[in-house]
Amino acid sequence: MIIKSLPWTVLCLPLALWSSVVLASPLARPTPKRPSGHGNPRPLVVWHGMGDTYNSPGMLEFISLIENIHKGIFVHSVYLDENPKDDQRACFWGDVNVQVANVSQQLRDIPELAGGFDAIGFSQAGQFLRAYVERYNSPPVNNLITFGSQHMGVSDLPLCRPWDIPCQLARRATKGGVYNEWAQTNLVQAQYFRDPNQLPAYFEHNHFLVSINNENSSTINTTYASNFASLNKLVLVMFSLDETVVPKESSWFGSYAPPHPNGTILDPKVIIPMRMQEVYKEDRIGLRTLDERGDVLLETCEGTHMQLKSGCWKPLVKRYAGGLVGGDSEGALRDGEQQVLKFQ
Ligand SMILES: *[C@@H]1O[C@H](CO)[C@@H](O)[C@H](O)[C@H]1NC(C)=O
Ligand SMILES: *[C@@H]1O[C@H](CO)[C@@H](O)[C@H](O)[C@H]1NC(C)=O
Ligand SMILES: *[C@@H]1O[C@H](CO)[C@@H](O)[C@H](O)[C@H]1NC(C)=O
Ligand SMILES: *[C@@H]1O[C@H](CO)[C@@H](O)[C@H](O)[C@H]1NC(C)=O
Fold this sequence. Notes:
globular; alpha/beta; Rossmann fold; 13 helices; binds 2-acetamido-2-deoxy-beta-D-glucopyranose; palmitoyl-(protein) hydrolase activity; 11% strand; six-stranded parallel sheet; disordered C terminus
């Protein structure tokens, strides 16, 4: 049987399984148990994290656990290439704007998703799914759950496992010239690198995060805000001991403060929380609208980056995924369950 208590680690290595679990043969695309529609659980889209692949044992295990929670649910695992090696490579190399466009086509082409779906993004895929919502959202996302994502970017690059060569190479190349044109169209992590001490360079040269955060006032796209605010719930999960995402509060739309206007770099560093961000205060992406409606949930999971303990992800997946189409929008309301989402 499946061991549920051990942590899962995803960064720069596949969502690792911890036992010799015998898995079903790798599925390129999970097949629906029954057509989704009125009275059935809402379909779910999951997008794996950096260094992982859409059909790794860890992802397949995660999906099968969800299928046990929400019987009959259709789950699609996002890929940029059906070949797992190339899918993994696309975590590091490529143009995120192109990748998100590619995924939007993929999601549009899946008949089971036509009525809308809930979505779960692991780590960097959380902000990629947010880009999907803001720019495409057709079919629309109902609830968006992001685990350990970098919504306000990272001010340092994620560390790699010593043996993870693709990750190491990408990290080295990204550090070399994060805001140059080549990096901004070829190195995935450069496209959400946001150094608070170099904000002018970021505003001017970043190709992805500045756009989806509407941080450049001359290029604001109001469609992003209306699409994003159309979510039912936005569930932002931060890992309490995350040292991979710098700062970890980025998972909650926090960031380090820029230097004092006189140029002094703040020491110790100060976090600007979500509700103090310009992007929020000016409601540039609809985040404030969502929050004032009570639809932004700031959740904490105890542990390091993507340490997905079942006590952390299960209540969230129970509650915010698999709601009945045409019925309650939240899974947990279906069986009257009162999940208290506290992980203290
Ligand atoms: C986009 O999708 C197509 C079809 O699946 C694939 O062949 C292609 O490599 C993808 N492009 C990118 C940039 O990931
Ligand atoms: C704003 O974003 C929408 C959705 O991606 C796009 O269709 C539109 O062209 C964008 N508008 C501008 C001015 O870039
Ligand atoms: C905003 O974007 C425009 C067009 O890409 C660019 O020319 C300008 O420098 C950016 N603004 C800032 C403050 O960087
Ligand atoms: C900048 O302002 C801060 C806060 O008022 C002050 O502590 C610091 O000494 C100033 N630095 C310079 C170089 O003026």
